[in-house]
Write a structure and sequence with these properties.
The chain is built from 12 helices and 12 strands. The protein is of the alpha/beta class and 400 residues long. Helix 2 crosses helix 9, helix 4 crosses helix 5 and helix 10 runs parallel beside helix 12.
Length: 400
């Protein structure tokens, strides 16, 4: 967000900044959704509170979506569907319902920073589990941490929050990997929270929901990414039966209900013409993804193993490698210099990595949500900037 703030300052001063720092789709809400909002505002109706769990018509649409997309054997009861104020509202509701202050909650070492920030604010203890060489946290890594804690006598893990596809890495669990993770959590009394906000934006791999494999998992999703409705502040959760009463109470006290106008419009998200429009967005993301990956291949100093797989979502996560950074000249300095000199905004990895480690200042995230032309320009400028960066690193490594 520091990068975004500075990028906006430069833009306000009249500079043409290329924004690749945030997951903000270049498109607005689907046409039918936007039109539905206008229609609702012009009709003689009161946009008052809804039921705490959201409009029944919207929850029915969400239930139908899961049955159709994931071929679930049984439809999800609307009593288990909670419409939230964005996925952020969902995280807060889920964390407060599932965990108490002092509980130990596991997160991936490379992950969405709000998990860490919200859980810490609630007094939870974080367990950062290192992702594997494929930038994933699987049942293998979780089992190792479970075993380690048992041997050392550490307090057991109470919960796990994980996104697939991941922000920032784009790595996505295979169905078998997700199944193994769900089973491991259920067998060890670990509350699994599956962040599926980037479902719908994937590139060849099959998407699976935790609901396929567990009736105890909490699934969190949003209208922000695939549905391109970031500012509408609307999301949803699928929760197990035992959490309906506590989350109902929390929702009523924290949010009352999600924005009514957003809920009313979102009912149209699964219309055929809306889905066709959204799939055209995904086609553009696929092109932009290819542009970034192909341009990164031109940087000989970057090891392909240090570029996360980008199975889904709209981010490329890059580890610059030890040889391309040095003290004071890591990804934070690179992102600052790239912004000031080339007017390109990337996000340094310190937002996403375990603050106890050093990888944050070696990694960076490139968002390609802003459109094909945007990433083409950004990558051209990065390639122009890169030799000057290597020269600075080399100079900084010279003995003084």
């Amino acid at each position: 967000m520091d990068v975004l703030h500075r990028a906006n300052e430069l833009q306000a001063d009249g500079h043409d900044v290329i924004h690749c720092e945030v997951g903000q789709p270049e498109t607005g809400a689907p046409n039918r959704v936007a039109s539905a909002a206008v229609e609702a505002l012009t009709e003689p109706q009161i946009m008052g509170y809804t039921d705490a769990f959201g409009l029944l018509a919207l929850r029915q649409k969400i239930s139908e979506h899961y049955t159709k997309k994931y071929n679930l054997e049984e439809s999800i009861p609307t009593s288990r569907i909670v419409v939230t104020t964005g996925s952020s509202g969902g995280f807060l509701l889920a964390f407060t319902a599932c965990f108490d202050a002092g509980d130990f909650v596991a997160i991936a070492s490379s992950g969405y920073p709000c998990y860490r920030n919200i859980l810490s604010a609630l007094g939870c203890n974080l367990i950062n589990i290192a992702v594997n060489e494929s930038f994933k946290l699987t049942a293998t890594e979780l089992q190792e941490e479970i075993d380690r804690r048992q041997v050392s006598g550490d307090i057991a893990i109470k919960g796990l929050i994980l996104s697939s596809p991941s922000n920032p890495t784009g790595a996505m669990l295979d169905p078998s990997e997700l199944k193994e993770l769900c089973e491991l959590c259920d067998n060890n009394g670990i509350q699994f929270l599956s962040d599926e906000i980037y479902h719908g934006i994937s590139y060849g791999k099959k998407e699976s929901t935790a609901l396929d494999f567990s009736d105890k998992a909490v699934v969190i999703n949003s209208f922000s990414k695939y549905y391109s409705m970031t500012g509408w502040r609307l999301g949803w959760m699928i929760i197990p039966e035992n959490l309906t009463e506590p989350i109902n109470a929390l929702q009523q006290n924290m949010f009352i209900s999600a924005p009514t106008i957003s809920q009313t419009a979102a009912i149209n998200c699964w219309d055929d013409d809306t889905i066709e429009e959204l799939e055209r967005h995904v086609a553009k993301y696929r092109i932009s993804r290819s542009v970034v990956l192909e341009q990164l291949k031109k940087i000989a100093e970057l090891d392909s193993k240090n570029i996360a797989p980008a199975d889904g979502g709209f981010y490329i996560y890059v580890d610059l490698g030890e040889q391309n950074v040095t003290h004071g000249f890591g990804s934070i300095a690179l992102c600052k210099a790239l912004l000031e000199e080339e007017l390109v905004a990337f996000t340094p990895g310190n937002d996403f990595e375990d603050p106890a480690g050093t990888l944050g200042d070696r990694r960076l995230r490139i968002s390609y949500a802003g459109g094909v032309d945007t990433v083409k320009t950004a990558m051209e400028r990065l390639l122009r900037f890169w030799p000057t960066w290597l020269a600075r690193v080399k100079a900084a490594k010279l003995p003084s």
